[in-house]
Amino acid sequence: MDTEAQPVERDRSSQPAEHTPEGEEDRSRSSLRSPHPLRRGLSRGIDAVAAWLPGGRVTLALLSCLAFLLAFSVLVMQPFQIPSGSMESTLRVGDRVLVNKLAYRFGAEPKRGDVVVFDGDGYFGEADYIKRVVGVGGDHVVCCDSRGRIEVNGQSVDERSLLYAGDAPSEVSFDIKVPDGTLFLLGDHRSDSRDSRELLGAPGGGFLPLDHVIGKAEWVAWPTGHWRSLSRADVYARVPAPGGSHG
User: Fold this and answer.
1) pTM for this one?
2) Active-site residue 131, yes or no?
């Protein structure tokens, strides 16, 4: 009796390997191990520079670190040394502060209570200065109320936690409105600070344009015993915006 033939699965392991052109497999494997041409070129460039420098790659690494630190200082966070006592006791002579140069670069603007470093050329003098922001554009700043405190937009400000011991908020009376796009700046050591009060009758009226601000002082970095954050003073938190809402 005829029987139906059963299909037999061929053992795949016994099948002959497909023919691979000579050298094809070697080229395939070699291509996986070969670095990208751009990477090869970069590596050769680094080797060439390192060979030219005394000390080779070690010197190159040090120079790269210095270049990075320089770029970081110029573009992001720059140290400044405090030259005078105009911001005592917040900042002392010789303190080094780290200034965030990006703080006001993306639409943000200085706020009341910020400590800022700025270029005083044409307004305060041909140097960089550090002061506290007391008034921003549109603010009405008066000195002083019946208790000797500065008023901003009708709100008295208790600055005792900021001021140098024994200092009054101001020995000079004033009643000003801060022009839009400018700042009214005072030192914390009011009796020893050349600031916006002294320049009220000068060209510019003691008001600093925003584009002269270098950055926001964020940290006291040196000496280590003075290390701390320079967070924005909350004594101005209750001051309303010129339109009446709180700023």
Assistant:
1) 0.71
2) yes
157 and 206 co-located in one domain: yes
Q: Are residues 122 and 68 in the same domain?
A: no
Please count the structural domains in the chain: 2
- The token duo for 138 is 């549109």
- Amino acid at site 114: D
Catalytic residue flag (residue 86): yes
Residue in the block written with tokens 């405090």: 82
pLDDT in tens, 184-230: 999 999 999 999 999 998 888 899 999 999 999 999 999 988 889 99
Distance CA 120, CA 137 (A): 18
> What are the tens digits of pLDDT across the range 114-143?
999 999 999 998 999 999 999 999 999 999
Instruction: Give the rounded distance of the alpha carbon of 202 from its chain centre.
Output: 31
Instruction: State how far the Cα of 53 lies from the Cα of 245, in Å rounded to an integer.
Output: 62
Considering the domain architecture, whether residues 62 and 178 belong to the same structural domain is answered as: no
Close Cβ partners of 99 (under 8 Å, ≥ 6 residues apart): 77, 78, 79, 80, 117, 214, 215, 216, 217, 218
Residue whose token pair is 């502060």: 97
Catalytic residue among 14, 31, 64, 86: 86
Which residue segment(s) compose the domain that 182 sits in? 77-236
Q: Pick the catalytic residue from 101, 131, 170, 193.
A: 131
